Amino acid sequence: MRNDELLALDRAHVWHPYGPMPGRTEPLVVDSASGVRLRLAEPVHGQAELIDGMSSWWSALHGYNHPVLNEAAHGQLDRMSHVMFGGLTHEPAVRLATRLVEITPAPLQHVFLSDSGSVSVEVAAKMCLQYWRSVGRPGKQLLMTWRGGYHGDTWQPMSLCDPEGGMHELWSGVLQRQVFVDAPPVTYEESYADMLREQIALHAHEVAAVIVEPVVQNAGGMRFHPPAYLRVLREACDEHGVLLIFDEIATGFGRTGTLFGADQAGVSPDVMCVGKALTGGYLSMAATLCTTEIAEGISRGEVPVLAHGPTFMGNPLAAAVACASIDLLMSQDWALEVKRIETGLREGLAPVAELPGVREVRVLGAIGVVQLDHDVDMAAATEAAVRAGVWVRPFRDLIYTMPPYVTGDEDLARICAAVHAAAVAG
Ligand SMILES: *Cc1c(COP(=O)(O)O)cnc(C)c1O
Question: Ligand 1 mean position to 151 CA, how many Å?
């Protein structure tokens, strides 16, 4: 298809994330990708390829077109790409679930595979509500969270995103009411910890679970918080009979410097969601893990099953690639690579903090964030980054990058230079 033809059809028929119909801005056409480079169908602003600063939204941690992941996909494709999971099982799903149990905190023993992060959050919520129903506490029907979070775009997850200024504000009167507390401060404050304890105690009769993104709040505003708050949540939840869900969909698989955000606090949630980087960015898959207490509680109840079962549950192709991606990650010193990227981002982005209009630069693990004192001019910022040979996708007042772990030092420096250019332009 010719590029202009493709773009005309795209505009006429194809919806893009958080976009109007027809689209108002022209997307870049990607022809192929390998390593950390996206190859464009036609050069844009003089660039035939772009260094990927986004890991395709946290997912492509090994880069693109990786020989090991390709081989896993091809091998599985020749066996079967899918069979239903009701009444059937297969090695890729069993291996993946076992592997996830091995690498996540010890109390998490049971794995529900689904097709996207939002669905894994729906499943987490259903598990927790159903657990309390099963053990005779049906009044615990709400979830509690702190503001500034993001848990997905389907209905239950939307109700957990920050109700103000977030992407789902439009639905505030329609969504399930949940219990919100203030967003976590960036430093440890005992008064905030006390507030968490008080609110959990106050709402324990109606709250089934607290759900948070550990260590980094992602699409809700790219904010970091001290892991000590996670220990406060764990203790208060235990004390008052409330379950704790960690949404590790963005933080999982090493992104913050530890394998999971939970590891920074040394606590285990009762339920954990993973997604995004689970398949190394190859295919859509997510998982919800839970403890034996929750699994047994549900299975002792009046309706002794978890009534959820996506058509593509446990998809063998995605599971085979996920196994390969986890094995690839664990076979290398990923923590060293994340540390290297952290250092590169700290050094490379330091000058950006001096620019007028920049409120703050913050770096944690392989995540670099530039927060402006105004909303980003998306078109201008994106164009400046593309001219510098880099793909980033700013939102609100944020220009941020979370590069694949395989990004070399020179490419990392180019990413930092492009973020600098985007901050000047945007
Ligand atoms: C992206 C994300 C989700 C939603 O995952 P999808 O696969 O887009 O449905 C949920 N929670 C967090 C923390 C995320 O970053």
Answer: 6
Residue nearest to atom 5 of ligand 1 (CA): 117
CB 422 within 8 A of CB 394: yes
373 carries an active-site annotation: no
Residues in the chain: 426
Contact call for residues 274 and 287 (beta carbons, < 8 A): yes
Ligand 1 pocket mutation, candidates 56, 146, 151, criterion most atoms within 8 A of CB = 151
Neighbouring CB atoms inside 10 A of 23's CB total 15
Distance between CA atoms of 426 and 417, rounded to whole angstroms?
Answer: 14
Q: What is the pLDDT of residues 361-404, one digit of tens each?
A: 999 999 999 999 999 999 999 999 999 999 999 999 999 999 99
Contacts of 258 (CB under 8 A, 6+ apart): 264, 335
pTM here is 0.98
Catalytic residue among 52, 276, 400, 405: 276
Task: Select from 115, 276, 282, 398 the residue to mutate for testing ligand 1; criterion: most ligand atoms less than 8 Å from CB.
Answer: 276
State pLDDT tens for residues 303-344: 999 999 999 999 999 999 999 999 999 999 999 999 999 999
d(CA 259, CA 253): 5
Of all atoms in ligand 1, which is nearest to the CA of residue 218?
A: 15
Is 405 an active-site residue?
Answer: no
The first and second tokens of residue 148, run together, are: 């500034």
Is 400 assigned a catalytic role?
no
Q: Is the pLDDT of residue 166 over 80?
A: no
Q: Whose CA is nearest to atom 8 of ligand 1?
A: 117
CA distance 152 to 141: 19
Would you call 361 helix, strand, or coil by DSSP? Answer: strand
- 229 is an active site residue: no
For residue 117, the number of C-alpha atoms closer than 13 Å in the C-beta half-sphere is: 25
CB 234 within 8 A of CB 271: no
DSSP state of 64: B
